[in-house]
Amino acid sequence: MQWYLWNAYVPGPILGICDPPGNRTENTLPSGNWHPSVGTQTSKRASKCVVCQCWRGLCGERQLREEGCCQPQAPPRAPAMSNGWKDHLGARSSEPLPVVIIGNGPSGICLSYLLSGYNPYVKPDAIHPHPLLQRKLTEAPGVSIVDQDLDYLSEGLEGRCQSPVALLFDALLRPDTDFGGNVESVLTWKHQKERAIPHLVLGRNLPGGAWHSIEGSMVTLSQGDWMGLPDLQIKDWMCRKRRGLRNSRATAGDIAHYYRDYVIKKGLSHNFVSGAVVTAVEWGTPEPSSPGAQDPSPLFQVNGFVTTADQSQQPFSLCARNVVLATGMSDSPARLGIPGEALPFVHRDLSALEAATRAGTVSPSSDPVLIIGAGLSAADAVLYARHYNIPVIHAFRRSVDDPGLVFNQLPKMLYPEYHKVHQMMREQSILSPSPYEGYRSLPEHQLLLLREDRQAVFRDPRGLQKVFGIALVLALIGSHPDLSFLPGAGADLATDPSQPLSAKRNPIDVDPFTYQSVHREGLYAVGPLAGDNFVRFVQGGALAVASSLLRKEARKPP
């Protein structure tokens, strides 16, 4: 069986890459909203809180967690590739693409950089502060990190991530960042074109992925320096843009702009197709065309469509030897699974609260807003409601002292606003009076049903039912990836196939040193799909994939 490349429509230059938006002053931030009628990106003037520095001093600017709390908006129009890719995809060929990457967020961008011939080497005079790692690095001088034994190098490393390769790459890029140090990276980068592997990166949005769908003034959870990609530090990029970090954190608008710029500056634009939606990925095994042909390996057929300048959808179909899933985890909000969940006053996005506030549907004199969840999205909603004096009932299943609660994992000095919410959750129980007027928490409560008359029925820890009148419901309980383009929606790829995919609890089951699926050869997963939730650590997955693919290429016959 042979699969071919056909019907790949390529309408024009990549939006925001070949032609960055003009007339943008240095004190504006991209909001990430692509306006199809004018073909330019709208901007939002950055505002800095000068009112106060306390937990309520956000002045309407929500905090942002890296995992992403917003759903992708409409894809940008007129995606494209260079003429070289246009010619390649437009012709029928029996030779498939070596790699197709689905998703153009930080994971996909970093992997594209590594597959484009950029290889990391240890600087000859570098001394790593970790003695064991330093000794191992000296054993193979002049050998690229991607060509070394990642299992061996990462052995003995510890940190804030479960992935050994993610810890390794992070330690090489940011040697002592967890201890507050500023030791420079021990890596230097060499561009070796002969080692590049042809690939294509497909994404719904502009390069940067869901970061373009997030309100530009929101602030990252992680330190700004941790948001950078290899060989272009955030602080250097922002200095050239005459911008600065806010309390060591960056805005989402700056990060989205940085990722787009990164693709341009590193010469990766020809690999990216924006506005591409993948509808199906199928796999099979090719038949050798001749007795001396290379051993057959799995082939993947990737089908989808591209949104063109006139908003029409042009289909494409690609054939690839390897497919990398880099779509993230925020495609589909998690469901409550209770009666009344589909009622019109139930929402899953903080923007619904913002809209209701502007419309006057909720106000200081209205019934409370019911916020469900104990994560950072729920905390964002509490902060927003408190800023506008909107009454809140905050319900969550866990105990406030549960060690798995995200607030118990954040340094208080860096995130005072979130720890204030955690304090409120602990002190302002529905039955215990305290100074937080207009806020009530319902720890260890389970929502049973929502009624049309805007009544919410709960079961408390003792099994008793409680009923509250509410004006609006925000169910901010996480999200799941949309892998509907895979057979069985990718359920059989998870660590526990009987449970939904989850970045924290049930990611795709991959080999920890190659990130290749343990169930499907040639299929890889990076980023949150593989359990790496922060930009700082997703780059290790890209390193593992690049190393694996380079070894496959080396095994191919001349």
TrEMBL record:
Organism domain of life: Eukaryota
Compartment(s) of residence: Midbody
Cofactor(s) demanded: NADPH
InterPro entries tied to this protein: FAD/NAD-bd_sf, OSGIN1/2
One GO BP annotation of this record: negative regulation of cell growth
GO cellular component, one term: midbody
GO molecular function: growth factor activity; monooxygenase activity
Primary location class: other
Keywords (A to Z) from UniProt: Differentiation, FAD, Flavoprotein, Growth regulation, Monooxygenase, NADP, Oxidoreductase, Phosphoprotein
UniProt family annotation: Belongs to the OKL38 family.
Protein name (record): Oxidative stress-induced growth inhibitor 1
Species of the source: Tursiops truncatus
Gene: OSGIN1
